Amino acid sequence: MAPVPTLKLNDGNEIPVLSYGFGTANFAGNDEDIAKAATLAINNGYYHLDSAECYLNESGVGAGIKATGVERSKLYVTTKVVGTIEQHVAAALDTSLSKLGLDYVDLYLVHVPFSAGSPEGLQKIWAQVEAVQAAGKTRSIGVSNFEVEDLEIISKTAKVTPAINQIEFHPYSQQREVVEYCHKKGIAISAYSPLSALTAARPGPTDEAYAELANKYGVSEGDIALRWCLDKDIVVITTSKSKERLQGYMTNTLGFKLEPQEIERLNTLGSQKQYRGMGIEFMSKRYGNYKTGQAAP
């Protein structure tokens, strides 16, 4: 099995472009089921694992890592801190590391910007994230669900530029302003929910294009959806529990590239519809959102 290609980050570290995620379908799963999912992913070449404290399943991910016996140096593990203003980031990361059974993570993200209580709170959270990187508890640091405004807020006091911004990204959520800003600043993008145009947001204007391109390249429509992201230099995250699909993404998705006009076709068709999943709304209800005045319960 060929290794997954990597993308070089602004801190010099490299991140595998195909990742297995423990949100959405794996959210709050019991440890045994999550361990099985982690084992399935790792055994099929997904050494980049994407977790978070709020997914409530880091212990299961850790159990799966341990069960495979894969050397730590071969793994790329991401986890996230919610980033509430009262949170002590170093303690939160220590808890995550304990659950994962690791001494460090490869990438540590601030999960959402709006639970910090204020712009100043967000800056303080980022300073704490910089500190855990300096302490060697994480190799790279970044953010998730950040808009341009949020990135500008932390840039005013940051000593370290985020290495990556993980956002919902698919043809119906292209977030062009955010992507353009990040690329200009040297901040990589990773995509969660990259298959939404084929699943939750279907039917839609990209349906015919996906089918035609899948037929042309002899792959699945899911391969086309992931390849569209990869061809934009965007890291993709899948949460499938199907061995066949995971193996297909590993071989088919990584085995071809879309032509520029095909990428643009999906860009154009996707812009005809807007769809965002429930992730941001869920986090706002659970942790509060200072931007909208929504208090945490």
Automatic annotation (TrEMBL):
Kindly list the residues the record flags as site (Lowers pKa of active site Tyr).
Answer: K80
Q: Which residues form the active site?
A: Y55
PROSITE patterns named among the record's database cross-references: ALDOKETO_REDUCTASE_2
Q: Which family does it belong to?
A: Belongs to the aldo/keto reductase family.
One family from Pfam that matches here is: Aldo_ket_red
Tell whether Iron is among the UniProt keywords.
no
According to UniProt, the name of this protein is NADP-dependent oxidoreductase domain-containing protein
List of residues binding substrate = H111
Using the record for this protein, list the coiled-coil segments as residue ranges, or answer none: none
List residues of the NADP-dependent oxidoreductase domain.
21-267
| Keywords in alphabetical order | NADP, Oxidoreductase
Gene Ontology terms, MF aspect? oxidoreductase activity, acting on NAD(P)H as acceptor; oxidoreductase activity, acting on the CH-OH group of donors, NAD or NADP as acceptor
Gene3D superfamilies from the entry?
A: NADP-dependent oxidoreductase domain
The upper taxonomy is: Eukaryota, Fungi, Dikarya, Ascomycota, Pezizomycotina
